[in-house]
Amino acid sequence: MLEKINNYLIVISIFLLVGCSGPETKTMKVTATAYNSVKAQTSNEPNNAAFGDTLKPGMKVIAISRDLLDSGFYHNMEVTIEGLEGTYKVVDLMNRRWTKKIDIYMGTDISKARDWGKQKVEIRWIPNEKNSQ
Predict the structure, then answer these.
(1) Mean pLDDT of 102-125
(2) Do residues 103 and 62 lie in contact, with contact meaning Cβ atoms separated by under 8 Å?
(3) Which SS3 state, helix, strand or coil, does residue 60 take?
(4) CA-CA distance, 102 to 105, in Å (whole number)?
(5) Residue 112: in which H helix or E strand, if any?
(6) DSSP 8-state secondary structure symbol assigned to residue 67
(7) Distance CA 39, CA 46 (A)
(8) Which residues, including other chains, have CB under 8 Å from residue 131's CB and lie 6 or more apart?
(9) Closest Cα partner for 43 from 8, 117, 93, 116?
(10) Is the pLDDT of residue 10 over 80?
(11) Which of 62, 84, 113, 122 has the maximum number of C-beta atoms within 10 A of its C-beta?
(12) Rounded to the nearest 5 degrees, what angle is found at the Cα of 94, between the Cα atoms of 88 and 106?
């Protein structure tokens, strides 16, 4: 009897482990540059992002190339970026000429953005069921 209970508990444990695992994390290699909310780099309203958000120094946000929308990226999606701490939200879009690229917002600190330069990084995200591909 005790053996049957142990086997039953093992089966339930396996079912719970498999059934309760969260969505799979996706990864992608992209080119990452950095930008600032200054007129010389953006527009006459450098604090306004493409999705309507207002940019403020200190925010952890990115702009994405528009092709990433076809890969399941969406407004306010959270991503992690290789080499940087924390999560970043998608709040802005880049010019149509760019592909497989992100632009990391660095407030008004132009030297910090220049120091970042242009890097190949891996980004990670958990797809939203409606937008995943």
Answers:
(1) 96
(2) yes
(3) coil
(4) 10
(5) helix 110-116
(6) G
(7) 5
(8) 72, 73, 74, 77
(9) 93
(10) no
(11) 62
(12) 45
Give the pLDDT score at 20.
57
**pLDDT score of 23:** 72
Other Cβ atoms closer than 10 A to 121: 16
- From its phi and psi, is residue 85 left (phi > 0), alpha (psi between -120 and 50) or beta? beta
SS3 state at 123: strand
Catalogue all structural domains in the chain, each as residue range(s) with its CATH number: 23-125 (2.40.40.10)
- Assign 9 to helix, strand or coil: helix
Location of structure tokens 């403020």: 56
When mean pLDDT is compared across 13-22, 41-50, 57-66, the lowest value belongs to 13-22
Residues in the chain: 133
Structure tokens at 53: 């958000």
User: In this structure, which amino acid lies at residue 85?
Assistant: E
**CA 5 – CA 122 distance, rounded (Å):** 46
